[in-house]
């Protein structure tokens, strides 16, 4: 019934705060998981780890 929306658009209010960023523990956990994945991927691609490692040859 009113012409203005109940929640103004983000660009309508220049000083409006954005949503808070992720907590520090989430950022650290993500970085650690990505580092572990990168190391495992590098070992797999170099042949130092993988299915052929247990063959004994």
Mean pLDDT: 79
Biggest sheet, in brief? none
What low-confidence regions span 5 or more consecutive residues with pLDDT below 50? none
Secondary-structure element string = H
Structural class: mainly alpha
Helix tally? 1
> Which descriptor suits the 3D outline?
rod-shaped
Helix percent band: 40-55%
User: How large is the share of residues in beta strands?
Assistant: under 5%
What is the number of beta strands?
0
N- and C-termini, Cα separation: 79 Å
The radius of gyration is 24 Å
What labels would you give this structure?
mainly alpha; 40% helix; rod-shaped; single chain; 57 residues
Compact description:
By secondary structure, the chain is an all-alpha fold. It contains 1 helix and no strands.
Describe this structure in words.
This protein has 57 residues and is mainly alpha-helical. The protein has one helix at residues 24-46. The longest helix has 23 residues, at 24-46.
């Amino acid at each position: 019934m009113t012409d203005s929306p109940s929640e103004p658009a983000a660009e309508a209010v220049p000083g409006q705060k954005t949503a808070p960023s992720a907590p520090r523990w989430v950022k650290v956990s993500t970085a650690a998981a990505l580092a572990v994945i990168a190391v495992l991927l590098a070992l797999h691609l170099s042949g130092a780890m993988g299915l052929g490692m247990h063959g004994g040859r």
